[in-house]
Design brief:
Layout (H helix, E strand, L loop, with lengths): L12 H8 L12 H4 L1 H13 L8 H35 L6 H20 L7 H20 L14 H5 L3 E2 L7 E2 L2
Antiparallel strand pairs: 1-2
Helix pairs in contact: 4-5, 4-6
């Protein structure tokens, strides 16, 4: 009996716990429908919304899910931009290894970025900042993928943010910047 209190475990503990904590049942925890099966919970919440049975809706978790959906697009957009920047760096600084696969990667990432921005137009003002944020990691990946030294790539972003998203832009730091070449 530490501290002079009887332990609440062992034989006979459940009745004592039930007495001290109404609603307690040994071996059971209060797991909500949201915690048990989010897919079933979401379907039920959608049904309740359509039926306009607002008092029955799990508002706190519905709000959490909506906020989560909104927050998902920023990391997706940042990742697409990072992949695109890595391909642009490799295109610009490995001219002998330019390929249709690299050009395809640039086009595919631009299409995916545009798709995210079409679905979430409010993210468009963030693109320039995301391009700048993603550059250091894109540079590190370009070093790993290309086998070139870190010094082979500029310390700062060598492209303008609007150029990064331009489907016709393919950089050429050794000459003039190409458009559509």
């Amino acid at each position: 009996m530490p501290g002079g209190r009887p332990l609440l475990r062992g034989p006979g503990a459940e009745p004592r716990l039930r007495h001290r904590f109404p609603g307690f049942r040994a071996g059971r925890s209060r797991v909500t429908a949201y915690q048990r099966d989010r897919t079933a919970w979401a379907s039920e919440q959608a049904r309740l919304l359509r039926a306009r049975r607002l008092p029955e809706i799990d508002a706190a978790n519905v709000a959490r899910e909506i906020e989560g959906l909104a927050a998902e697009d920023v990391p997706v957009l940042r990742e697409r931009i990072r992949i695109l920047l890595t391909a642009l760096l490799r295109w610009a600084y490995q001219p002998d290894l330019r390929s249709t696969a690299l050009a395809s990667t640039m086009a595919a990432q631009r299409w995916r970025i545009e798709a995210v921005l079409k679905d979430s137009a409010s993210l468009r003002p963030l693109v320039a900042d995301l391009v700048v944020e993603a550059y250091p990691e894109a540079k590190r990946l370009a070093v790993l993928e290309s086998g070139l030294f870190d010094e082979s790539f500029p310390e700062g972003l060598p492209f303008l943010p609007h150029e990064v998203l331009d489907f016709d832009f393919r950089p050429d730091p050794f000459g003039e910047r190409e458009n559509g070449a």
